[in-house]
Amino acid sequence: MSRTVAGARVLITGAARGMGRLYAERCVAEGAKTVILWDRDGAALAATTAILTERSHGRTQVAPYVVDIADLGAIAQTAQRVRTEIGDPDVVINNAGIVRGKYFWEHDNGADTRPTMQINALAPMYITREFLPAMIASGYRESRIVNIASAAGTLSNPRMSVYAASKAALIGWSDSLRLELVQQGYGQVKVTTVCPSYIDTGMFAGARGPLLTPLMTPEYVVDRVWRAMLAGKPQLLLPWTVNLSKVLRGVLPLAAWDAVAGRVFGVYRSMDRWVGRG
To answer: How many domains, the chain?
Structure first.
């Protein structure tokens, strides 16, 4: 799998629109055997399926599944359908996510906190757990797990407390899984943890990129993630300033870092005008 996903079965969550759809388009363009689309929006999923099916000219099977991954029980049920109807995927891209741009005390536990943690942190674990045993048992056949986290999981930021917590959990689990697989001799299964800053999608409408960190286009991020995934790269931080921020946060006293992040880079004001998808 060093160059393409040709002949592979690829599962993508949040696949009906946005970056999930872009990943699916890559699968079709490279001649994947099957692209398995998971999304809770049935109408958008049907539209995306029709477009991808037409583009594939019969070379790639497009298999849509309507599933709300906030329902952890539905993950197990849908995974069993995939195994029965398609077979276990060779690549899993845990792309789906949600964000709530509020102060912590403005979050509603049922409408905000619980679904954010379920979709962003628990769902990727549940989904991966469903398909990982077959990847491990495959022997020398290469497999990939891509977990789309966020730079918010590496740095604190006002109006992102629950979102940041969910992504920090995802990062910690994802990279620990990578180490476990290497340690136990399952090197054919490679895990890539992706930590991007703001991407110019509806999900982050209104957010402002900090100094030297402009909003990235979805196409740019998908291209970088795709190359990292094929290469089996352990971690991808985008853009370069995310790595710089991690270094500065590690070496500066907290008060100094707060001043730099808040006053110089503008990180702490970046979500002030967030509106999301409305």
So the answer is: 1
Task: Output the tens digit of pLDDT for each of the chain's 278 residues.
Answer: 668 999 999 999 999 999 999 999 999 999 999 999 999 999 999 999 999 999 999 999 999 999 999 999 999 999 999 999 999 999 999 999 999 889 999 999 999 999 999 999 999 999 999 999 999 998 778 999 999 999 999 988 889 999 999 999 999 999 999 999 999 999 999 999 999 998 988 776 666 767 667 889 999 999 999 999 999 999 999 988 888 888 888 898 999 878 887 888 777 777 766 576 65
Q: Which positions are catalytic?
A: 163
Domain CATH code at residue 234: 3.40.50.720
What are the angstrom distances between the C-alpha of 263 and each of 187, 194, 225, 269?
A: 44, 27, 31, 9
For residue 276, being part of any structural domain is answered with: no
Residues spanned by the domain of 117: 9-269
Query: Is-above-0.90 flag for pTM?
Result: yes
